[in-house]
Amino acid sequence: MTKQMCGLLFALAWACAPPSKAPLDGPDGPAQVILDGAQRAMGVWPTPDSLQMLADAFVRGPSRAFRTVIYSSADGRVRMYQSHTGFLAGVGRSGGWLVDFESGATESLGESSAFVRTHELHMLALLPRSRLAAPRFLGTTQLDSLPVLAVGFSGDSVIAYFSEADTLPVGLLVTWPDPAVAVSWSEWTEVNGVALFREASFRQEAEEWHYTYDRLELIPLPDSVFEPPRER
């Protein structure tokens, strides 16, 4: 993958005010309560071990519009496709794979792994604990003038924000790149008994990508979805 395409990985952020309280040390009961409350609010409680998601979105970016389709699983598997580049890659049970656009041959995912993994932000909105460790409550802050609860993971390399009113997820901030990566979720709608977002905004400094989901639902997916296509 080119450096330009990898740059899209980081083009997701909006400015977030710092939490109003210092992080707590050690195991954090308040963080677990918030995360449990978020899953209940969405209707994914208790946690399904085999939770899988299909996301089909129209994306409006700074330079072009395109369609992306992402399959993700709570066990770490993922597959993504982008229409404007023909990019097709995934992570299956046997590891990461990438289809070469010109030859159609399948190769190791390699340096594109971070790009594909970042698109699991869709799954992180529902089940951050399926990917991230050591949650701790960071206190309250505001996003768009609304009070939110902040939970940090893995030494606060990722911070998740939840509505103080109903604990639904409202955003995610990944602090390790420079500039930081973040995403905001909105327009929550019930789909087959589960509350799911229909809009998402990804920003970095002055650039923004806006996702409108034509289809976003939790459905069982065959194992073959996450494996590379058979070469002809």
Description:
With 232 residues, the protein is mainly beta. It has one domain: Lipoprotein localisation LolA/LolB/LppX (outer membrane lipoprotein receptor (LolB), chain A). 14% of the residues lie in helices and 43% in strands. It has a 13-stranded antiparallel beta sheet with strand order 6-5-4-3-2-1-13-12-11-10-9-8-7. A hairpin with a 5-residue loop joins strand 9 and strand 10. It is globular. It starts with a helix and ends in a 14-residue tail after the last strand. Mean pLDDT is 82; it is low at 1-26.
User: Outline, from the CA principal axes?
Assistant: globular
The CATH topology label is: outer membrane lipoprotein receptor (LolB), chain A
Strand order of the largest sheet: 6-5-4-3-2-1-13-12-11-10-9-8-7
* Fraction of residues in helix: 10-25%
CATH architecture annotation? Clam
CATH superfamily: Lipoprotein localisation LolA/LolB/LppX
Sketch the topology as an H/E string, one letter per element: HHEEEEEEHHEEEEEEE
Provide the low-confidence segments as ranges: 1-26
**Alpha-carbon distance between the termini?**
23 Å
**Content-based structural category:** mainly beta
Assembly state: single chain
Q: What's the pLDDT, averaged over the residues?
A: 82
The number of helical elements comes to: 4
Task: Give the beta-strand count.
Answer: 13
**CATH secondary-structure class:** Mainly Beta
- What is the count of structural domains? 1
Largest sheet properties: 13 strands, antiparallel
Please compute the radius of gyration using only Cα atoms: 17 Å
- β-strand percent reads 35-45%
